[in-house]
Amino acid sequence: MSDWKKEADYISGMIDRHHEWFDNSIPMIASENVISPLAREMLVTDFHDRYAEGEPGERYYHGNIYVDKVELKIMELARKLFKCEYADPRPISGTVANIGILKALTKPGDVITTPALSDGAHISTAKFGAVGIRGLTNQNYPFDVENMNLDIDATKKMLLEVRPKLALFGRSVFLVPAPLEELRPTLEEIGCPVWYDGAHVLGLIAAGRFQDPLREGAHMITGSTHKTLPGPQHGILLANPRDEKMLRRLKSGIFPGVTSNHHLHAMAALGITLAEHLEFGEDYADQIIRNAKALGQAMYELGFKVFCPHLGFTESHTLAIDVAEHGGGEMISQLMEDANMIANKNLLPWDTKPKSPSGIRLGTQELTRIGMKESHMTEVAEFIKRIAMDKEDPAKVKEDVCEFRKDFKFVQYCFNTDIPAYKRHRIV
Ligand SMILES: *Cc1c(COP(=O)(O)O)cnc(C)c1O
């Protein structure tokens, strides 16, 4: 065997190990999910090998007869699922969709308003992310830590003072809906476009849960398609544009603004996910939220400082937990990984050091996807307690985690529920 083939085998071998690990783990990263078998199959099709710049019917390349049909169908499914006038499945990630919006609707030097990073905003909407690339200044909304949401009265006042060119809502630690309806009169008075970054909660919104931004005053939603919407790593833009001019700008913001090849294989997989979500999305979203509340309750009863007990801990898939007294977010998430529980450390609103956050963030969307219900959340909470509070040897907890995962090997809420979740396509 050649040396280079050995290197290739090394890489595919590591991926086999990764699959085996995740097949025996409790995955709780709030921004991840596992794709359905049929959608996964799209990722290894010839769509992966092609280009289709432009819009269906008006391409710069030939060879797109079937790509066009697929793209038009996906736009139709997305419009139906999100009840919007325009759906663009070309952004190759949530961040790319966000940069497209900034390109479409702002000019360098403009001031926009966004949630603060420490209050759960995403880096793509921070000064040292895409907002900075576009040469914008952002002002952060005042925050109400008790309710983990914007401080509505103070935000109204701030919006009237700043009069932003664009107002962004939506976060990565997103426990409760953004107060769009409450802020709507103020935003209408200012007259700026209202943009909702729904990356985390897109699957909940599609199912009619959490909130309905396009009916609450937002003109557009961007999002990742792989968080609570359990699809491929990709992005999407959904809009009810104010007028033709806004629509034209949004389209050109995405292409040629921020895409060339729009990853046709991932787009096709997204189409399958949208169809599956139209069929199974409501049941899936309901169970995600029930599981998140159940996990919050179980951890709270074990003595963890779970955010927002007075609100039932969360209205989404996400929980925020202050673990400072147990060693901090870095230490706890590392110990959890040692026991096959995958989570991330997270900044809490009062944290000042980005590298040593006091919190962890947990999501229930992937556990729900592999079939877990409320009663299993109690068991998950107990595993976390053994690690974080009892300081049990992670190797011992890991054995029990592996045993627990034996009942959850298949993806649910999709068309084929008899194919293992972590299946690889093999060249035989
Ligand atoms: C995850 C996320 C994004 C973008 O994520 P991608 O990895 O680029 O798809 C954007 N905004 C928010 C709020 C997010 O949580």
What is the annotated CATH architecture of the domain at 40-275?
3-Layer(aba) Sandwich
Q: What is the straight-line distance between the termini?
A: 17 Å
Catalogue the unreliable spans: none
CATH class type of the domain at 40-275: Alpha Beta
Strand order, sheet with most strands: 4-12-11-10-9-5-6
Shape annotation: globular
Give the CATH H-level superfamily of the domain at 40-275.
Type I PLP-dependent aspartate aminotransferase-like (Major domain)
Q: What is the name of the CATH topology of the domain at 40-275?
A: Aspartate Aminotransferase, domain 2
The protein's oligomeric status is single chain
Mean pLDDT across all amino acids: 96
Which ligands occur here?
Answer: pyridoxal-5'-phosphate
Report the structural category: alpha/beta
Number of separate helices: 14
Annotation, overall tally of beta strands: 17
**Cα-atom radius of gyration:** 22 Å
Strand content: 5-15%
The biggest sheet amounts to: 7 strands, mixed
Helix content: 40-55%
